[in-house]
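Hi V.,

You were right to ask for the full record rather than a summary. Here it is.
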Amino acid sequence: MRSRRGRRPPSARARTGTRPSRRKALRRRWVALLSVLTVVGLGYVLLFTPLLSVRTVEVLGLHGLSTDQVIAAAQVPEERPMLRVDTDEIRDRVLALPGVATAEVSRSWPSTIEITITERTAIGFFDTGESLHLVDASGVAFKEVPERPEGLPELRLPRVTPDDPTTRAVTAVLDTIPGPLRERVVAAGARTPGSVELTLADGKTVRWGDAEQTERKAKVLAALLTREGDTYDVSSPELPTVS
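Predicted structure:
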């Protein structure tokens, strides 16, 4: 049916106007199929071909360790497609190196694995009676050394482990005291977390107490050291003593 002006009435257009033609339906199916094939093909290229595989390993953040040491520990699989490289496993292997505190592993497209590490920094050394070990601020004895290192204080403790509260108290004090004072310390020890003592290069003893109020204790100690004495107690900075 057509209207007087030759147009189909709205009722007729409503019955047929919204139905896609067979050609349009086939076209849509082909587009959908090609899209799926494209995604599958791209996935195959990324996961199973050497087009985007590992060709280089870059190590960042080194100071004491060498690139060869880190790469050997990382065991990055050569020529493996980048998306199939397990970066968490690589990170865990690098973290097993004694001198590594933190490690991050990432992909740098198209073909590089980047390893960024933070090395441990020694704040003292520990003598087991049989060997000497460098110790970092977290209380980890991370490296054996053949002789006493110059410029580092000895940790006079029964044991040194990161899960020992007394170890953590001593290392926290050494890590936070001002540089000029740290340079004068030749030994640090404690019987409990609240009884840290420092031995200075001139033989004087500083009873530091716990690891709190570091800045205040340092200022009080600086004033006390101008007075004659052998033992300087700043464990209670409000009531310091010299004896």
